[in-house]
Amino acid sequence: MSEGRRGLGRGLSALLGEVDSAPAQAPGDTSAGSREAPIELVRRNPDQPRRTFREEDLVELSDSIREKGVLQPILVRPAPGAAGEYQIVAGERRWRAAQRAGLKTIPIMVRELDDLAVLEIGIIENVQRADLNAIEEALSYKVLIDKFGQTQELIAQTVGKSRSHVANTLRLLSLPDSVQHYVTSGEMTAGHARAIANVPDPAALAREVIDKGLSVRDAEALARRAPTADGEARAKSSGGRPAKTKDTDTQALEADLSSVLGLDVEIDHRGGTGALTIRYATLEQLDDLCNRLTRGH
After folding, report:
1. Residue 253 has pLDDT above 90, yes or no
2. Identified catalytic residue from 92, 136, 137, 254
3. What is the distance between the alpha carbons of residues 34 and 37, in angstroms, rounded to a whole number?
4. 92 is catalytic
């Protein structure tokens, strides 16, 4: 397993490894391993991080299942408060497609898991497969923080992401509902949303970005020109004079550094000298930046 995905070892990869290596059991056998269960006894998890399932994906998968069956067991746990039933931990898309395909039974792998483990595995599975949109991912992180007291550092380790990625994803939840909907529906990327997150009226700016089909870099430039809360243009300097227009190379470098660091970066380049300004909003972001800059020393 690569270093960048080390967090997956805590949950999903280990469990799916058991699924791959476990011998199949006869129907009705409750011992370890995969077995068949009546599909009506398998229930979705209402706290499943993924809420959006593309219709075309379900149609394609149901056609495959109708022809070849479900090739990988669905990971479940005994359903809380419902004896004899099961709650899906990982594999809801396969379960939905199997229902469409008309299957009466479905292969399952039963594990005793608490609520925290169920949520972590659901997040890991979907993040690994890029199945979550950015808002679903942010809401999942928020549940881990609010309900289970997880820190951004622990979440980052669990899902195999950087702490700045977790922090920047959570920032999307501060956007108006309309902008969050644009991200959920795919009309706008998370990069666009982050670019306009700090302007006074992100909803209006989001609409402009969508209508004009602007790139993330264009959205960042638009956000820099947007008025501040007191009505002053962002492009004005503190002395009231218009700021110099930066060349495209400097703007591109600012955007690249901002993307890597997950923080707002400004470059003031004057001839052969200049200044690099990195802005952070929390001490946690500062700590993460210090760790990045001192890594290996």
Report:
1. no
2. 92
3. 10
4. yes
